[in-house]
Amino acid sequence: MAEARIGQPATGEVPFRGGGFRPRPVRYVGVTVFVIVLLVLEWGTRAGWISNLTLPRPSDVALTLWRLAETGLLWDHLLPSLGRFAVGSAMGATAGIALGIIIGLFSLARAGLVPVVAAIFPIPKIALLPLFVIWFGIGEGSKYALIALGTFTPTVVATYGAVDNVDRTLIRMGQSFGLSWASIVRKIVLPGALPGILSGLRISLAIAIILLTAAEMIGARYGIGAYVLEAGSLYDLERLFAGVTILSVLGVTVNWILAKIEARVLAWRA
Hints:
By secondary structure, this protein is mainly α. It has helices at residues 29-47, 58-71, 73-105, 107-120, 129-136, 140-164, 168-176, 181-216, 224-233, 237-265. The longest helix is centred in the C-terminal third of the chain and has 36 residues, at 181-216. The chain is globular. The two termini are 37 Å apart.
């Protein structure tokens, strides 16, 4: 009988060691952390360790959210915000992905457009809101334009960076097999760039939520940003944190949707 090596069982299957640092799902950990944080805050505010003048009780915020939903005011503010977010981010992300792919594939476009994108990217987009109001008016157009521009620039940078990072060996292999330029782009470049594009969208859509809130604080009667601004001007902390909670839930929901999309379209990486 062969002797077992030290630290290795004599019989049984050898564990798989080629996962490549692939993350494995761990259920309920995130929810547990959220619950623990909320319980600590609730205990701290009730025990007097945390002043109610600086941080409201989570239970009071939850009660405020319940009353908002019960009276229908929640939907009066949430639905316009979702519409603005969907339209503005869709415009910016679509244009950003298209231009990023063009920059990544064509040297002339890269030489001409990368300096323009680099000049626009660091500008605080909220500073352009007065200009957009002049151009598009105080209505929905200026809000769509602000969200679209804020989503556009990081998406462009992430997309052409993802195209650049596609393994050149795979492209050379396709060329050696006689694949056409279009086939290489469709079968090698775009699938290889997709992980980087989706990662860039996580950042772009988070920026879109921030700009949505800022845009709604100017010239909007309904919207989560307008609700937060009104609550802050009245020093109503329960309503203020209720609005912040809605924005946080929106961000978590968008991140969850992107994670589901990644799991479906990037199943080949497993």
